[in-house]
Each structure stands twice: as structure tokens, then as C-alpha cells.
Write a structure and sequence with these properties.
The protein is of the alpha/beta class and about 450 residues long. It folds into 3 domains: about 5-90, Rossmann fold (3-Layer(aba) Sandwich); about 100-300, UDP-N-acetylmuramoyl-L-alanine:D-glutamate ligase (3-Layer(aba) Sandwich), CATH 3.40.1190.10; about 310-445, Alpha-Beta Complex (Protein-Tyrosine Phosphatase, Chain A). It is built from 15 helices and 20 strands. Strands 7-8-6-9-10-11-12-13-14 form a 9-stranded mixed β-sheet. A 6-stranded mixed β-sheet has the order 15-16-20-17-18-19, with helices on both faces. The chain has a 5-stranded parallel β-sheet with strand order 3-2-1-4-5. The N and C termini lie far apart (about 70 Å).
Length: about 450
Amino acid sequence: MAVKNNNVVILGAARSGLSAASLLKKTGNSVFVSDNAVKGKIKEKNYLTKMGIPFEFGRHSERVFQADFVVLSPGIPSTSEIVKSITARNIPVYSEIEVASWFCRSKIIAVTGSNGKTTTTTILGKMLKSRYHDSFVAGNIGFPFSDFVLDSTEKNWVGVEVSSFQLETIDRFHPSVAIILNLSPNHLDWYNSFEEYASAKLKILNNLSPDDHVIIDGDDDELNKRILASPPRKFKFSLKSKRAEAYLFDDHIYLFNEQLINIHDVQLLGPHNYKNLMAAGIAAKIAGVATSDIASVMRSFKGVTHRLEFVNKIKNVGFINDSKATTLESLEAALNSFSQPVILIAGGKDKGADFDRIRSLLEESVKAAILIGAARDRIAASWSGIIPIAMAHDLQDAVIKAMQNAVQGDIVLLSPACSSFDMFKDFEDRGNKFKKIVTQLKKQYENQ
């Protein structure tokens, strides 16, 4: 398909939709934005007006079907009626990641998985920057790929975080390196089954050749089986096997059998983060980054906001913001990162997780759970009898109740294991409100 002189419809005026609209307008396409949101969107309307891009809000009119192709917002299910109507007319539907990749001249390292994507992509970006000063990271990490691709060059490498929603509607998207961190049940409120979700994730391999690379968790037997027949060269990271390209042995991370760094010099918490470091390290090494620079980033990286982020201490009780933990696997990783007793704040919009699965871990690690959000009743039913449980009206009530149950040396951990959309704009909004509440509570205790 030609990348200019097309009639393009952008379905959804969120951040990535606006970015795709701008990119396609700049590259010689006729663009129309359609969003069925009725309220708000003032900033979006002003932006589109300034760009000279026509739009509609509050509906999807017949104009949507007058397109050579449609760019789909990741917030709109491919199973929605409007998308079904579009595909029934044989109009191609692509993700913003797909479209942006058409204009990218740099080699792409794409990062996906059920957990750890943003942390790994951020680490990778810092490693790439040590050699390629014009490199960038984009995608599901919060910076639309379309914002950066026109500045890409053939001499650079770029890191792109990709979600299952974005991968559903790729066509030619072709990273030189694909990282699949893990694969576990997620977004089962969106997908009909784990198999459907896994199939979307593994589309990252669709266009890879024997000259490309895939990096996976060598400890994940199921993931190893799923990619066995795929053509790219396979590289693995492991906490168990010294046969992997990156592995942990005697408290050291090794990369291609070279001792790199002692894990006691790493500022990130938890074994899952050792894997994130190793995955990024393998990719960076493939991209030509010096081993010494890889080790330096591993040593200095302090983490990503809303991911096991230390907030403050109140009367020697530590408060940790892990708002990005929207899956049970993320909650498990968080609980395995602390030796101190934990008072857990969990709950939010239910994603269909099996909360029974972590009952034994809760019994070992958690003193009490304070539950919030739409999923709190189902979580309480699952965890009842294992640990003390309290219900909270909102996040502020949860923080206060957690502090009331805490003693010196405890950890109050916000690690919801649910999405945020029942009570908050997104996980960042939830995490920021948690930090604000903790800061206010600390002032109250200091003034007593």
C-alpha cells in the first residue's frame, strides 16, 4: 500500500489517534477523525482544528466507510460493531503502531508480554541512548510511535512497547528484535479466552525472518513451545539455566557468559526485574551497545513511576506505589519483592483474573488486605479466611485503614491486580492520587 494520497479515517481521538492523524496529514494523506464520545474532547477538537483535520464527535457517520484504510484506537475493541461494519466492507483496519512503522527508518526493537513491558522498554531506551543519541522509545509506554518516526534515521535503533490490542491489527509491522517477556492470562474481560489473548501477543512474530531475533524467558516452558517453530534466531534470559544468553548465577547477572553486575548493586526490587534487565541487555547487545554501558544502566536505573515506586515513610511504615500492577502476576512479583510484612491495597475494575490462585502467597506475605473498586466483593470472597480483609469506600479510605493496621517496619503496598477504569482515568491517575494521599497523611502525623 502507498503511504500517501490515501483517504484515512482515524477511529478514536485519544493520544495515539491524534498522533496518527498528524503523521498521516503531514505525509500527504487526507485524514478524518471519528470519535463517538459525546462529552468533553475540547482539547482534541482544538488540536484537530489547528491541524486542519476534519472530525466528528458523538457518532460514527457514513463517512467512516469512505476510507482506503482505518486506524484503530487501542481503546476500541476489534469486535465492536463499528469495526465489524468496517471490515465487512473490506476496508483494512490498522493500529497506530502499524501505520507509524511504515515511516520508521530505524531498526525496531519491539517489547511485549503480560508484565514488565514499560520497565524493560525504559531500561532498553537508556541502554540504546548510550550509543545512539537520537534513539527513542515509544508506543504503549505512553509516547505514540507516530510522534517520533519522521525523525528516525537508518543509523539508529528504537524501542517500541506494544500491547496485545495494538498487535491485533498489524500487517507489515516488522521489528528486527522482538522481546516477549512472558505470557500469562490477562485482559480476559476483553478476550474470549487466554488462547485468543496469546494469539494477539504472538502476532509480534508474524513478519520476522531468520535474520531477525526473538528474546524470551527461558524459564517459561509454555512460551518456549509456542515460539519453537518461528523463524527468527532465539535468545533467552533465565534465573535458572546457565545455557541462556543472559542468566543469574551466584548473585551475578551474566550476559553472553560475561559476568556483568552483582544484583546487590541493582536498585530495582525483585527477581522479575532481574529478568527485565537481562531482556533489555540482550537486545542492547544485539544492537551493538557496549557491555560496559549495559552494566552502567543496570547499576544506575532506579525504576519507573508507578512500578514498585517508594513514596514515603510514616512512623517507619513504608508506602509503595505499584499502581501499574494490573494483573495477578504483577501482584505476585510485588509481594515476592519484600521480606517485610505487607498490608495490601488491591482492587479495581475486574479483568477476569482467578484470585484464588495466589491464596498461598497471600498467607505467607500479607498481614491484611484493604479492598477497593468494582472487583472488591469478588476478591473478598476469594481471599476470605486466608488473611484479614477490610473494605474501603475509596483510595483515601483505603490508605487510612492501611495505616491504622500497620506497625513500624510494615509495608503498605498499592498493587491492585486490576485495571483502574472503574474509579480513575488510568493507572497513572490512580498512582498519583495514592502519592498525594500519602503525602497529606504524613503531614497530619507530623503535626500531631
